[in-house]
Amino acid sequence: TSLDAVEKGINNAELDPENSSVGFGGLPDEDGEVTNDAVIMWGPKHAAGAVGCLKRIKRPISVARKVLEKTRHTLLVGDDATAFAVKMGFKEEELLTEKSRARWEEWKKNPKHTDFWNHDTIGMVAIDKNGDVTAGCSTSGLAWKIRGRVGDSPIVGSGAYCDNDVGGAAATGNGDVMMRFCPTLLTVEFMRQGMSPTEACEKSLQRITDKGYRVSACLVAVNKKGESGAAKIGVRPFPHAIRNPALDEVRTIR
Ligand code: ASP
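Above: the input entities. Below: the structure tokens describing the complete assembly.
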């Protein structure tokens, strides 16, 4: 199912110690703690589960799925989300790797260090043979963020959103600004009005620039017909992958 595909696909990035922006090996907050945000939204029931500022657990999207399937809540946060994960059978583990700890120490001792550092996140949208849509998003958030910061990624309609009648969308970029616009909700609503996935992504990013923000923000979207699209604003290139029976391709918007 698309639900399994999104969970397992995102797990790949979360468990990769070389990926410094998701899960295990993600860059920590300013105090050296890795905290993760994730959401998974499942079309058939229009249900979602999410975790914010989750600590010491390696597969945040799977904990989000437990919130979706085992509770009537949508979002759990912080150490209490960790306690929930442990109750669900997850193991508490160190998420800093030698490499990510070294990068934090280097940042810490640089007197001119910049406060935040933009990086990637994984967002996924899948549609399965039954036509069911799932969207998900997982990130360790901005590196060196202030302790307690939760970004856009675990917020329904910001990090990811889907509607089983229309399609889904997922986001990456400057979450502090993006979450003020609910861009994945907007993208799905634009597709509902008949826009193509790419047009819908562009239109919803335009809301951000129209208000005068000059940030990096990227969206992917898939509609019910299985058509996909993407768009970005800002200077950073946006690589994204498309896989369907006809196509298996990584594209980059520069
Ligand atoms: N959106 C993520 C956040 O703000 C970071 C990113 O995607 O680069 O936490």
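Note for the figure: The first helix runs from residue 2 to 14.
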